[in-house]
Amino acid sequence: MHAVFFIFFIIDATVSLVSENDYAVLPPVFEVDNFDRCMLLGDEALYCTIDFQLAPEDAKNPTETWKKIQELNQNPKNYRHDRLRHGVCVQFTCPNISTNIRDDLEKCYIEKYYRFGMTGKITEMHCQKNAIPPLDIHDIIISFIFIVYAGLIIVASLFYSSEKAGVQHRDFNINSVENVLSCFSIKNNWRRLTTMKDEPDTKDLQCIQGLRFWNMFLVLFSHALLCMLNGPVINTKTVENMMNSESTYLVAGLAPIVTQTFFLLSSWLLTYHVLVRYGDGKQLNMSHLLKILLNRYIRLTPALAVMLAIHTTLPKYIAKGPYWHHFIGREYDSCRKNGWSNLLYINNYWNPSRMCMSQTWYLAADTQLFILGLCILTMMNKYPAKIAKMLGFFLIVGISIPGILCFINGYDILQSYPEHLYMLYLNVEDWHVLFSSGYSNIGALILGISAGYLFYIYRHENIFNTKLRQGLVCVIPLALSCSSASAMFYMNSSHYTYSKLNASLWWSGTKNGLCLAAAIFIFGMTKKLGGFLLWMCCWRPVRYLSRLTYSTFLVHTFLLRIKTASQRAPTYISDYAFMTLTLEIVTMGYIFGLILCITCEMPVSALQKLWCSTEKAEDRAAKKIIDVKEGGQFFNKNE
């Protein structure tokens, strides 16, 4: 979540040192020739997107235009105006092209900007022709698998009715072909998806279901805006004014911290699940850990593999536009090359600048923290008298790691600069080291484990039985949030001067402080505090939609990329355009998320039930205690 909410501050803009008249005569940062007109040329069509790096013709006596460009470039909250990103129909814009396209196109652009007293060179180029891409062996294999799987779902849906599912459900047996087939029935999976059981043991955790939905809504909200700023923009001046607004930057800078709630809830649920099963003196051994980890892997990976297969096949056939390579071509190439690292949940470390499905950095980091969390819970199970000391030690370590790494490497606070957003932060080293890595989020893991442990201890007690304690549940989170917000406001103001110490304190304190605030408030919600916010999280429609969280999380960025890869002109940034895109992606995200959930995620869940059907009755009963029963991951459904 890199830019959530700052659209509301679009009117709060500062005045640039370059006047609007001077700005108007500068070479446009983004410019796009008519793509469809170019494609009408048939076999002769050649459309290229280029990055053209400007430079002064005479460095000792630069023109006024170049001086204005340099003046804008000095502020990182502006676009790089010496880096032109243009879409060119070669036949119309630069018709005198021979066989050496890159060199001749570069000469054409040098001539174009010679009147500004500037020269330059092409640093990146990608060209398209009006041709249908050929099928390769990878496409054929994936298509065959999808067709066979679709046939299986159709046969299962026709064979296994929902009424029959109700009869057979009590007698699941993995050896029965009919029962295995029933796992793929759309009717049966719809019944399971829409059946909600309000069990006494999980009633206090209902608010977490709603939190999953609202967190996912914020993800869609922020990614919609990020998608608009991830490509060519026609009103770059508006974007730069937004970025130079201190109130805008405050919210934009705080937005990434929201992701800490995901790690917090994941470790909270994992801890509670483990304590329910092994908190009465039972030993948590290696076989138990491997089983929990295997269940999580089986639950998460099939849906992820489906989306990975789609990312490596469909884009080149269903999306076509001038900026296809920027929006989805890089992703397509990265998934073809590095997609295997997603299936091992190490994609946030392996060649991170070419990460496939960039939003899945969270799944990788959460899986790494999940494994660490299991190790810590094993130590807690083995040494129950030292739990407080262990959690205190790991919390200090987790909070210190980001600050230490920031200080050693000289990183600054996370900045939402236009050029960073244009590349989705994938070329920003400190984002990889201090934000998307597992080790930089250990603080949230430990806070989640601590909250889960305290919730288990006091699950049957009303510890907020006085007005003072109830007030503290609201006051402490508010104080922590305001302190973090104040620090962010100052560090994004014109008065802030970078120092290693300040940046280190921000990385260690701000996100962990907000995570602690969230933990305290959510703990209060589990004890029926929170008023309207509690009602919003426990509202039944929200809890239903929360079951689609994981599938929607996987599918929504693909929909955004397809939409933007097909656009024909630079985006006009406005409140209306943003709200329209947000509404569109929320609606389409949940529709396609439902399809992925019914056809992939739910069948895997049903197969896991069959696999576990031979366990003892008491083990099966224990698994029903918590919604996230196959490993405690954040994205699971209440069945």
Automatic annotation (TrEMBL):
Show the coiled coil region(s).
none
Pfam families, A to Z: Acyl_transf_3
Q: What GO MF annotations does this protein's record show?
A: acyltransferase activity, transferring groups other than amino-acyl groups
Keywords from the named record = Membrane, Signal, Transmembrane, Transmembrane helix
* Ranges that cross the membrane: 140-160, 213-234, 254-276, 297-314, 360-379, 391-411, 431-458, 470-491, 503-523, 544-564, 576-599
Q: Where would one find the signal peptide in this protein?
A: 1-16
Source taxon at top rank: Eukaryota
- Keyword Iron attributed: no
Which InterPro entries does the entry mention?
Acyl_transf_3_dom, O2_lipid_transport_reg
In this protein, which residues make up the domain named Acyltransferase? Answer: 207-599
The name on file for this protein is Acyltransferase 3 domain-containing protein
